[in-house]
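Example 5.3 — Peptidase M48 Ste24p
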Amino acid sequence: MPTRSPRFAALAVTVGTMSFALASCAGTTTAPVTPGQAGAITQEEAKLGAEAHPQLIAEFGGAYTGPQASYVEQVGKNIAVQSGLANARDTYTVTLLNSSVNNAFAIPGGYIYTTRELVALMDNEAELAGVLGHEVGHVAARHAQQRQSAAQQNSILGAVGAILSGVLFGNSQIGQLGQQLAMQGSQLLTLKYSRSQETQADDLGIAYLSNAGYDPDAMATVLQSLAQQNALDAQMMGSTGNQVPEWASTHPDPASRVQRALTEAQGMPGTVTNKDTFLTRINGMMYGDDPKQGIVEGNTFIHPVYGFEFKAPNGFFMVNGTRAVSISGQSGKGQLTSGTYNGNMNTYIQNAFNALTDGQQQITPSSIQRTTVNGIPAAYGTARVNASGGAVDVTVFAYEFSNSQAFHFVTITQAGSANVFNPMYSSMRKISSTEAAAVKPRKISVVTVRSGDTLASLASRMAYTNYKMERFLVLNSLTSNSSLQAGQKVKIVTY
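Solution (predicted structure tokens):
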């Protein structure tokens, strides 16, 4: 981990879906692509992918290593062969990301990514091959290049402002301010595809599945699992309007694609699912937040490495990842992150405001106030910004942890409502070494159903304090009416 910046997730994966929906490149047309006849990767594409690859790994929590990663790479390279690209096993790079969001994506040059969280949601190897095949399809069809051209960018890592029209509060966006709060750096590589591009990637993935002997219905079943996870996320957040982006904001709603995928796969050959193999190979994989990046427990975020915790206000939810913790609710949104600190709190706060606009405009707080929060030196400032939907208040609240380390919240509310985050600001505290040592990672544990086991008895073993049954059902694509058979393998989450 870098010493000056915590490994939190960029806010793009939590509120970015609102802006991506405005940037779907709906007018992009897709040229026909014949499964098994992918064109060769050009030198330019290979160069672009090689340059962006380490940035993306850093953005999404680093590469997950070990036997599970090797298995995902093996399945990904096998399905990539179905694209017809010469030397596909060597040309495609398949990476399992150490991220707790459901995400999969691809970039030019044959770079394919999926997160461990998304893999854990799958039920068999065919579903894994389907997701990776979908991403191979994006590369084979050169969708990223079409998307880039439609945005009139010189580089796929170009200016955020060329793609996004802002986030936060529906139509009352704050333009560049919201864009910077929502997205940083190489997150641009995961812009949402057009509907026709997604359809084409689904179709290619289904064809790759069938040609490899897998059950082609697996594309539909994994999309169904994603839809069910989205619904559970919304239920746990208490609002369907604040869902964590499906497929981590890079793909349209999977629920709308399930039936179409089933229809496309109808009559196509292939029966292999390799369910038991899949479950055996992912057993023991980390699930949820990595303690090294901090974890969300209910309304509390705790970071054992940096030694602090804070609580989100009532009615708000949090999502964590590599560079920021996002906090979202009906009355405001924000993030906790860090930046370069040289001991001057006023400069640090102004730099945080400047970072929101990327130099396009100046936002200056009316004043910067000094305070102390649970023994931690702190300072804060609020600026009122005129947006298309009305005035909003932007607050930066910073904490000095040492002469070279500071953290800060950036929050945005409707004008006059900035105090909704006051309980969160005042909850920041340092934790003891004992508290830090008590933070444990969760993992996927594959268990065999025994005679007498029930949905309730297995769900009770889930390492959560709430929604145990709901989490267990979604994790295993079960319903409350499902029956279990002795000898059947299921996933539970344990410490």
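Remark. The first strand starts at residue 93 and ends at 97.
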